[in-house]
Amino acid sequence: MNFMNTSPGLPVRRLGFSIARLLGLGSLALIVTACASVVYEGKYPWKEGWREAKVMQVGTSTEIGKPQYSDCRGKLPPEQVASGQFASVLYSNMSRRHRRVLPLQPGDAFRPGEEVYVNVTSCTAPMVRQTPGAR
User: From CA 85, how far away is CA 104, in angstroms rounded?
Assistant: First the structure.
């Protein structure tokens, strides 16, 4: 009796590929569901675009330099880009690391190395410092 191939005409390789594919899709669904339910510090939901990030650089638009993966400077009025302060942050999204440049609010004083929350779906949401030990 052939236990590996229960369907006539279905190659064993094809059956194995289908099972592996099904397991992979199931794993992906679990990861997405787990991430979607994350709420940082009880008020920054992952599903609304909030991500944990680390400040890499702070400065003017020209000091920050070239455009990054996600760059708010192209979505802002030219006068704000010319006179504003910006932060370049590093964040992870679905196991990939990305850089984002976003404007700082007047009076913000962030330093490289600080851990923050950023909203990757908005160029107007403020960057927020993470509370040490909280999540």
Answer: 6
